[in-house]
Amino acid sequence: MSDSLWPSTGFGAMLALMSDLTGTYAHPPVLGVDWSEWTALNASIGGQLRLSTPFELPCFASFEGHALPPDSAACAAVQANYTDAPFRVAQFGAAMNAQWETCQSTGAKCLLDDANPSSPAAYQDQNCDIGNIAPLHIDVRAAEHVQAAYEFSSKHGVRLSVKNTGHDYAGRSSGHNTLGLWVSTLNKDLMAFSDAFVPEQCDGSHKAITIGAGVKMEDMYAFADKHNVTAIGGYHRTVATGYFLGGGHSVLSTVYGLGADRVVQIKVVTPDGKYRTVNKCQDSDLFWALRGGGGSAFGVVTELTVTVEPQLTIQAAVVAFPPSPSTLTAWYKLMADNALEWSNAGWGIHLVPGSFVAVNPRLDNAAASKAMQGAVDLANAQGGTAVVDELPSFYEFFTKYVVATENPVGPEVLPSSRLLSNSLFATESGKASLLAAIAQVPSALPIVIVASNPNPALFAYEEGSTSFTPAWRDSAWHFLIGAGFAYNSTLADRQQMYTLASQLMQPFRELTPGSGAYFNEADVYEPNHEQSFWGSNYAKLAEVKKKYDPNHIMDCWQCVGWKGASDPLFTCYVQV
Ligand SMILES: Cc1cc2nc3c(=O)[nH]c(=O)nc-3n(C[C@H](O)[C@H](O)[C@H](O)COP(=O)(O)OP(=O)(O)OC[C@H]3O[C@@H](n4cnc5c(N)ncnc54)[C@H](O)[C@@H]3O)c2cc1C
Ligand SMILES: *[C@@H]1O[C@H](CO)[C@@H](O)[C@H](O)[C@H]1NC(C)=O
Ligand SMILES: *[C@@H]1O[C@H](CO)[C@@H](O)[C@H](O)[C@H]1NC(C)=O
Ligand SMILES: *[C@@H]1O[C@H](CO)[C@@H](O)[C@H](O)[C@H]1NC(C)=O
Ligand SMILES: *[C@@H]1O[C@H](CO)[C@@H](O)[C@H](O)[C@H]1NC(C)=O
């Protein structure tokens, strides 16, 4: 397969041709495949094949080197909504972390300035480049569309990528020179509640909801609330399927497990073209792999069913104070000293320097206030604010404390992270080493601590039922550092930042030998990623990959079966 005509020269030319409706032109091949083949594919999938463009394109006067008139009204809408998650989710040519729209190794891009989206410096006299966005995509509405894509891929050697909401921190939902499968509207209205859901061919029933691939967290939560139950999911409105496939932590995970723990059935189109319903009684090896194996490595999921909990009364301690170096030292010490006790009491905490939100579904308000008194006192002594709020449901908590305080998306964010083992918190010397390592993190880089890892004393999981690293169950903290660079970074800036993010995590890796990291929120260049993301589960995961995707139709960055950074699929990743 040759990709020489695309996107470097073919794309802009083709767009110009497409806008000429006489239809008499011979289209150039796309991704090395005759246009007639694409037309046939399009016809076979009910006309769901789409040309992709970066969503910033309306601001630019040139695309792929070809003049194209800007559209100032459309540009103004993009500028006004540049950091809005639902706006980005609705566009194929957008990613939450904008660097994944771009070809980071070459610098080819089509970005606005996320710090000031109205700044014309980003787009005036600049060319808009397709970058790392899949140049063509299928707006997938049915399993048959995925089957057609697999067949097309096998026949023509065109590589595939799968995009849902575009949250992936390692760019797995972008795909330079791939045919994209966009699943963001696939079954987006499918939400079904069952008091007694029985997985096919299985015994035993679950109180559960079934959600389509395109269902976002905010819709799932609202739906569950309407049925007077609680769905366990992520701390953001628009995260979708990839959350469950990679693990999925919730602020309720301490008591109710990870997202993947709660999946009881999945419908998936595997690369052999079969549309399967998998659970612990049917294709149980694949079902297990999908519960934590991560990304699109095993196929395209059309829907999944997750167990729900009763409506819960939530205690939320919301504490904030102006951080200074000395109070932060005391703050982290308080957090580390209480980590195991708080986990055992069922707290789930999102913590950043100078504030946290701590959630508990088991305590009453008096007990919750007592448990959090130390944190409240520390904040109050600094002139901060602190409440221990009781909410009648998780949905009310989510609306009041998550949606209302959601970070903007759009900046070029890159995390690195480590699951910090319980044993580190069990001794004074362990805690002292941890606090010393935290003190070394440059204050310009945000630290995020997610202290809501599934606690086996509270959440009775079935041994061997999931494939994410077992380290999750023995780690009080999922510890993250967030680095970033500017929209107009140089290649050297990017290399330096990825390298720095990776290096800054090294002391935490050394403090926790044998532990791991969270697939969905990891260092993009995670060292020894197979051990890190999956631990003792990796060998079996690799077997499952071989069985269901022997020809590597569904590869993605640091996914199961990854062949390495030299795969041409990854030419837009920078070398570090
Ligand atoms: C702002 C923000 C907040 C977040 N909050 C949380 C949180 O609270 N808890 C948490 O655990 N994680 C969180 N994450 C991380 C999140 O879980 C991952 O980014 C995850 O990959 C998102 O999945 P997605 O489907 O929404 O996104 P996408 O980027 O579209 O997809 C992610 C991966 O899943 C694959 N994929 C998606 N849908 C399908 C499908 N139907 N079939 C097959 N493969 C599919 C994609 O190919 C890709 O590999 C957050 C991320 C961001 C950016
Ligand atoms: C696919 O077909 C539909 C319906 O005819 C059409 O609107 C769309 O533009 C076609 N896609 C491409 C990439 O030509
Ligand atoms: C985007 O921004 C404009 C202007 O502020 C606003 O009117 C519009 O509702 C926003 N959302 C979408 C989806 O365009
Ligand atoms: C909702 O669920 C709660 C907890 O199970 C129960 O106490 C309450 O009666 C239910 N409300 C309705 C309207 O069914
Ligand atoms: C990037 O953009 C900022 C803001 O417009 C500008 O100040 C800076 O000089 C630019 N940097 C480069 C390398 O072009």
From TrEMBL:
Annotated organism of origin: Phanerochaete sordida
GO molecular-function term, one example from the UniProt record: FAD binding
Protein name: FAD-binding oxidoreductase
Signal peptide region: 1-26
Record-linked PANTHER family: FAD BINDING DOMAIN PROTEIN (AFU_ORTHOLOGUE AFUA_6G12070)-RELATED (PTHR13878:SF91), GULONOLACTONE OXIDASE (PTHR13878)
PROSITE patterns: FAD_PCMH (PS51387)
Alphabetized UniProt keyword annotations: Oxidoreductase, Signal
Superkingdom of the source species: Eukaryota
Keyword Manganese on entry: no
Listed InterPro entries: BBE, FAD-bd_PCMH, FAD-bd_PCMH-like_sf, FAD-bd_PCMH_sub2, FAD-linked_Oxidoreductases_BP, Oxid_FAD_bind_N
Family: Belongs to the oxygen-dependent FAD-linked oxidoreductase family.
Segments forming domain FAD-binding PCMH-type: 130-311
